[in-house]
């Protein structure tokens, strides 16, 4: 009897919410929209959020205010939005970390990426590049794989930290290429890149913006791009699939999410505001300066992508045994 009453109560509540949704959407936004960035100010996610906020403010007719809530690999900020009112006034700029890899790396994550958010828009992608010290004898991916198979465990690879995107990209590469490389974790891209430049580290997967300067200067060399297509900034550098190792697509990405239950009409309004913001030449130029690739996709595409990303990286974590620091 109690179960029937509970189900009936939930059904009535759902009907009430559905009836109220058009009213919510009609007056939306009625106040400032808070765009939560689950990382510190000054980083690439924060920079993209501020580009979005500036453009979307004009389209929505209300201020879009960026609020940095950093900590716990992005969990604090993303978790706060997951619990926020589903009225479109609190949204989050999530990443492949907050909405894909955290779920398998951190068992205490207080939300589920696919279940607890309403997807709004995929914003941008950032390719990872397989880079090597400039004097590494291997001049191509094929030569690297051949050398690594001949001497398992001899070659080192760096990452920006245990459980980081660069770490998981390298572990995915190891699995697909069938090689054994020795992991050397660092606290961020800068010290890792310094060791590559100094020749004390053999290879690494790094986001393109973090190493493009060194590649262009010739202090390190790019062997391949871990993406489905070549990077515009590195047209001569093949993808890993072109270089003979398929299945290593490891783009970092930024995407906008609202709390679960946000009315579709509000999600649509947010998506249109994002599209208008990103259509501005100034916004596109600013994104290019950040080294990110515009990759605008709507709620349906983003919603279909998230479970696949969670599953993909969960398998990498399982096989590699990767853990966060």
UniProtKB/TrEMBL annotation:
Region forming the signal peptide: 1-25
Keyword entries, A-Z: Signal
Taxonomic superkingdom: Bacteria
InterPro entries, sorted: BUG (IPR005064), Bug_dom1 (IPR042100)
Keyword Transferase: no
Record family assignment: Belongs to the UPF0065 (bug) family.
PANTHER family: BLR1237 PROTEIN, TRICARBOXYLATE-BINDING PROTEIN
UniProt-recorded name of the protein: Tripartite tricarboxylate transporter substrate binding protein
Species of provenance: Chelatococcus albus
């Amino acid at each position: 009897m109690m179960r029937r009453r509970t189900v009936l109560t939930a059904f009535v509540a759902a009907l009430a919410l559905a009836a109220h949704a058009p009213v919510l959407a009609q007056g939306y936004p009625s106040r400032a929209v808070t765009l939560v960035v689950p990382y510190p100010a000054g980083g690439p996610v924060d920079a993209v959020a501020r580009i979005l906020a500036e453009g979307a403010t004009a389209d929505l007719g209300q201020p879009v205010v960026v609020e940095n809530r950093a900590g716990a690999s992005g969990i604090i900020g993303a978790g706060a939005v997951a619990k926020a009112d589903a009225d479109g006034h609190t949204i989050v700029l999530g990443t492949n970390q907050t909405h894909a890899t955290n779920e398998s790396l951190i068992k205490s994550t207080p939300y589920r990426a696919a279940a607890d958010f309403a997807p709004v828009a995929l914003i941008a992608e950032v390719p990872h590049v397989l880079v090597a010290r400039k004097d590494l004898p291997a001049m191509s991916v094929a030569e690297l794989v051949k050398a690594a198979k001949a001497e398992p465990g001899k070659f080192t690879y760096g990452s920006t930290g245990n459980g980081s995107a660069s770490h998981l990209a390298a572990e995915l590469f190891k699995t697909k290429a069938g090689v054994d490389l020795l992991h050397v974790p660092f606290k961020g891209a800068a010290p890792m890149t310094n060791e590559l430049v100094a020749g004390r580290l053999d290879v690494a997967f790094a986001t393109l913006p973090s190493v493009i300067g060194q590649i262009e200067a010739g202090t390190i060399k790019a062997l391949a791009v871990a993406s489905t297509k070549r990077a515009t900034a590195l047209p001569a550098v093949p993808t890993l699939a072109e270089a003979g190792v398929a299945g290593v697509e490891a783009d970092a990405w930024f995407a906008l999410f609202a709390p679960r239950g946000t009315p579709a009409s509000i999600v649509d309004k947010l998506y249109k505001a994002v599209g208008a913001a990103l259509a501005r030449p100034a916004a596109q130029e600013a994104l290019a300066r950040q080294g990110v690739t515009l990759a605008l996709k709507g709620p349906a595409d983003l919603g279909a992508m998230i479970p696949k990303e969670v599953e993909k990286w969960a398998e990498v974590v399982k096989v590699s045994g990767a853990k966060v620091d």
